[in-house]
Amino acid sequence: MDTFVQQVVNGLQIGFVYALIALGYTMVYGIVRLINFAHGDVFMVGAFIGLYAIERCRLPLFAVFLLAVAGAALLAIVIEKIAYRPLRDSPRIASLITAIGVSLFLEYFTALRQVFGPNYYSFPRPFAVSSREVCGVELTNLQTIIFLTTLGCLALLYYVVHRTRMGRAMRAVSHDHVTAGLMGVNVNLVISFTFGLGAALAGVGGVLYGIAYPQVNTFMGVMPGLKAFTAAVLGGIGSIPGAVLGALIMGQSETLTAAYLSSTYRDGIAFVILIAVLLLRPTGILGVPRTEKV
After folding, report:
1. Are the C-beta atoms of residues 48 and 187 closer than 8 Å to each other?
2. Which DSSP category does 117 fall into?
3. Which of 78, 205, 259, 290 shows the greatest Cβ crowding within 10 Å of its Cβ?
4. CA dihedral over 75, 246, 204, 8, signed as positive or negative
């Protein structure tokens, strides 16, 4: 039983990281109905910013998070303004293809030796990992940091979305961007803010991922990005609580599969879950069907 509980704790560790990435997918989709496939690569850039901030600048962990958040948010805002905004009124397939193109560009551009380089790099941990036994389960200080940081980010996100003027504007644009614009909401600003907010969370996730699994490269965002997207679909794309729930389910399924079946299946289980959700409940666990006016 203790082994099972230990695996559950390990699943929470990766699940919380997936949640930080999945929130970006679900918020962007909720605002502009776009699957931003470049989001996983923004997560990768956040991890590399954290790498350089720790290794070369010797910054404290809090400053590392701030730098990764700022860099990832700025990148996402630039991508939205240059690549997505001109296609906002085009068919959705155009934006989807553009998102895939931006993702490939980021992966191969950052792989240039003049940027990040094509190799794998060891991610330095800014603190020594230690553990203590809690109710028969080993809990490390790294896991504690991941849990507390993610919960803090979720609390801040809830405050922004439900207690601020920008959050009200986000909800209005998500419901009907045309009417929101007629009511005086700056739709372009809200969309850019949403891209930046989702990327900021991904930047935090990139640093936490690098510390937890201390090896990074320019293609590291592909698989976590796909799993986070699957988590968003599982929970209900467009639903913030659904993205968190789906990410936790993904983390548990991946960890328990590796522990009790085989580690070779841990990536495949994500796509099995995605297929099952699309077949059985396309709207996801907490998602609701959307009606399209014609």
Report:
1. no
2. -
3. 205
4. negative
Helix (H) or strand (E) holding 139: strand 137-140
Task: Report long-range pairs for 285-292 (Cβ below 8 Å, ≥24 apart).
Answer: 285/234, 285/235, 285/236, 285/242, 285/245, 285/246, 286/235, 286/236, 286/239, 286/241, 286/242, 286/245, 287/235, 287/236, 287/237, 287/238, 287/239, 287/242, 288/236
CA distance 59 to 183: 44
Q: What radius of gyration, in Å, describes the C-alpha atoms of the chain?
A: 19
- Over residues 100-114, the mean pLDDT reads 95
Take residue 168 and report the two structure tokens written for it. Answer: 């009200």
The encoded tokens of residue 72 equal 């990832």
- Mean pLDDT over the full length of the chain: 92
Residues 257-285 pLDDT 10s: 998 888 888 888 888 888 888 888 888 88
